Amino acid sequence: MSKPVDVAVGVLIKPNGDVLLGQRPAGKPYDGYWEFPGGKVDPGETILDALKREFVEELGLTIHSAEEWCGVEYVYPHAHVRLHFYISRDWSGEPQSLEGQAFAWQGTVAVEPLLPATIPLLEWLEQVRYI
């Protein structure tokens, strides 16, 4: 098995409990699938720094603070990933589609298909969404 690739993933939660999901753009593995936004951690970069960088690059959002939530390791046919999930309720800006991806604020998550590693998190998310 290949060494996992570290990925920083952000769960933005609005005061009403809605969370932001993004749709993978055309040309990427699992294009059209929905996921929590994020991206690969560069060498020498902390996970939180990677998360902040990815949100600026992909969505034009500035994350001011985020707390580590959980980690999930998942083996896809194209990649072995170690996902580091952070929850943020403190950011500025409105999401923009800087990489041509769709995004949606979701209360009850109704978009599909969901990326397989995202599915189990939705149940866990219900425990922290309104804290």
From TrEMBL:
Keywords: DNA damage, DNA repair, DNA replication, Hydrolase, Magnesium, Metal-binding, Mutator protein. It comes from the Bacteria. It catalyses: 8-oxo-GTP + H2O = 8-oxo-GMP + diphosphate + H(+); 8-oxo-dGTP + H2O = 8-oxo-dGMP + diphosphate + H(+). 8-oxo-dGTP binds at R24, E35, F36, P37, G38. Gene3D superfamilies: Nucleoside Triphosphate Pyrophosphohydrolase. One of its GO terms (biological process) is DNA replication. CDD domains: NUDIX_MutT_NudA_like. One of its GO terms (molecular function) is 8-oxo-dGDP phosphatase activity. The keyword DNA damage applies. Residues 2-127 form the Nudix hydrolase domain. Its cofactor is Mg(2+). Mg(2+) binds at G38, E58. PROSITE patterns: NUDIX, NUDIX_BOX. Its EC number is 3.6.1.55. Belongs to the Nudix hydrolase family. This is 8-oxo-dGTP diphosphatase. It comes from Duganella callida. The lineage of its organism: Bacteria, Pseudomonadati, Pseudomonadota, Betaproteobacteria, Burkholderiales. The gene is mutT.
